[in-house]
């Protein structure tokens, strides 16, 4: 292979993840030429409606509004690998595609960035997020808080947290802040507007399945590319996200379903926990499971919810 074409979205975070992938490829295959192809997705283009309404507004009935155009390019041979934030990737991929590898996972927590500390968020506080999972958990953990839709890339969202009166604060993934060089604890300023930042404990504010991981998708059966991408796979991360995604599959859930999942891996021992919210109002179901076989732990977690 002379050139590997790497497809990515054009946001600051997506480009950073593409850069991480390129660096890993350069270490594993010093002579390999890598071409970056930037693709604008439906989710990037449609910022005029809430994220969970984008598929409906576009007449797209799958859940992959941040991956559809990347997969079109992948199937057409315009790119060889699609780089994704794994939490954006649907639980079950269509037949032409395969999740082949994952990079080493970053911290998986959600982070609060606000004009006030997280401890002061309460009745009437305005919290910005485009995630149904985060919305449900904010309302569960902070009764009376108001959730306000929030769109845009990470720097844009942080600017809104600092300067837009519609938000007392916002919730983002710790991994994105980390990768883009923002602090994840304490305080910082945006144009002299001070902001509190705090990572929320994973077993209190449950992250998304696959959060913090970068997934590398290829065409099914493309073993020439597959052999290259296999060299980038991080085994421990793979075992964790495999179990998390299997749990979502068992629930027939996807990346926009209000489900939080955490997992820890010590040696071969995997522990998992989940919080699953019902449609509409109602208390969430919660369960834990542990073991040494990721598939079995995911299935036990599913059974423990019943």
Largest sheet composition: 6 strands, mixed
Q: Name the structural class.
A: alpha/beta
Number of strands: 14
CATH superfamily of the largest domain: Periplasmic binding protein-like II
How many angstroms separate the termini?
A: 49 Å
Strand residue content: 25-35%
What radius of gyration results from the CA coordinates? Answer: 19 Å
CATH class of the largest domain: Alpha Beta
The helix/strand series, from N terminus to C terminus, equals EHEHHHEEEEHEHEHEEEHHEEEH
What spatial form do the alpha-carbon principal axes imply?
Answer: globular
3D structure, described in words:
The protein has 306 residues and is of the alpha/beta class. It folds into two domains: 3-106 and 208-304, Periplasmic binding protein-like II (D-Maltodextrin-Binding Protein, domain 2, 3-Layer(aba) Sandwich), CATH 3.40.190.10; 110-200, Periplasmic binding protein-like II (D-Maltodextrin-Binding Protein, domain 2, 3-Layer(aba) Sandwich), CATH 3.40.190. It has ten helices and 14 strands. The strands form three sheets. It has a six-stranded mixed sheet, with helices on both faces. A five-stranded mixed sheet has the order 2-1-3-11-4, with helices on both faces. It has a three-stranded antiparallel sheet with strand order 12-13-14, covered by helices on one side. It is globular and about 55 Å long. The N and C termini lie far apart (49 Å). Residues 54-63 have low confidence and may be disordered.
């Amino acid at each position: 292979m002379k050139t590997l074409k790497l497809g990515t979205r054009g946001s600051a975070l997506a480009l950073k993840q593409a850069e991480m992938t390129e660096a890993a490829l350069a270490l594993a295959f010093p002579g390999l030429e890598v071409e970056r192809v930037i693709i604008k997705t439906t989710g990037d283009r449609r910022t005029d409606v809430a994220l969970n309404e984008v598929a409906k507004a576009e007449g797209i009935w799958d859940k992959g509004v941040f991956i559809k155009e990347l997969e079109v390019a992948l199937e057409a041979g315009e790119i060889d690998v699609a780089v994704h934030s794994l939490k954006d990737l649907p639980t079950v991929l269509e037949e032409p595609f395969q999740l082949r590898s994952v990079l080493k996972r970053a911290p998986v927590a959600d982070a609060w960035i606000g004009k006030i500390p997280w401890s002061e968020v309460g009745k009437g506080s305005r919290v910005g997020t485009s995630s149904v999972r985060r919305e449900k958990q904010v309302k569960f953990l902070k009764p009376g808080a108001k959730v306000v839709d929030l769109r845009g890339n990470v720097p844009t969202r942080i600017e809104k947290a600092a300067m837009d009166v519609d938000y007392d604060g916002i919730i983002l993934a710790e991994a994105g802040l980390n990768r883009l060089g923002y602090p994840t604890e304490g305080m910082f300023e945006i144009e002299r507007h001070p902001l509190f930042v705090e990572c929320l404990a994973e077993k209190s504010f449950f992250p998304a399945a696959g959060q913090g991981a970068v997934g590398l998708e290829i065409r099914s059966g493309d073993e020439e590319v597959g052999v290259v991408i296999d060299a980038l796979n991080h085994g421990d991360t793979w075992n964790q996200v495999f179990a998390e995604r299997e749990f979502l599959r068992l629930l027939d859930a996807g990346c926009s379903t209000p489900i939080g999942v955490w997992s820890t891996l010590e040696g071969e021992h995997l522990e998992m926990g989940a919080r699953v919210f019902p449609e509409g109002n109602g208390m969430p179901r919660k369960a834990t499971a542990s073991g040494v076989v990721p598939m079995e732990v995911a299935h036990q977690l599913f059974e423990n919810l019943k």
